Amino acid sequence: MLKNLSPLLSGALLSALDAMQDGDTLTLVGSGYPEEALTSPIVHLGEDVTTEAAAEAILSVFPLDTADPSPIVFLDLAAEPYEVPDVAFAVNGIASDAELRRIPMTRLDLEPFVALAQRSAVIVRVGSDAPPCAFLFRRGAL
What we know:
Layout: H1 11-19, E1 25-29, E2 42-46, H2 51-59, E3 72-75, H3 86-99, E4 105-108, H4 110-117, E5 122-126, E6 134-138
Parallel strand pairs: 1-5, 2-5, 3-4
Antiparallel strand pairs: 1-6, 3-6
Helix pairs in contact: 2-3
């Protein structure tokens, strides 16, 4: 184990993150995400890992894009313009803390989200979430 590195950051995940190029996307999904939509390499973090814990571990080493006005996209299943899932608020706070700046997020419906997610460099899958949630993180330069 490396010092000050989250135990959730396995060798497989660190290798996948290191292989990503600037502008590539990482998709973080819970178990409720449609299986048939997963086309990129998948790193499983475990059934007991929450989306928030995975986001905190990933964003501790993963730089978000500074050129993109919204480097995080989240899957919106609520279909209510003023309703944001608690997990989206939490991930936004984690990202803002990791980047030491406010991180805007964009919401997408299922079809456009899946279209973007299918072009991700890597998919990180975590345990069960209710309601189903998913995020895209766009990588920036170090």
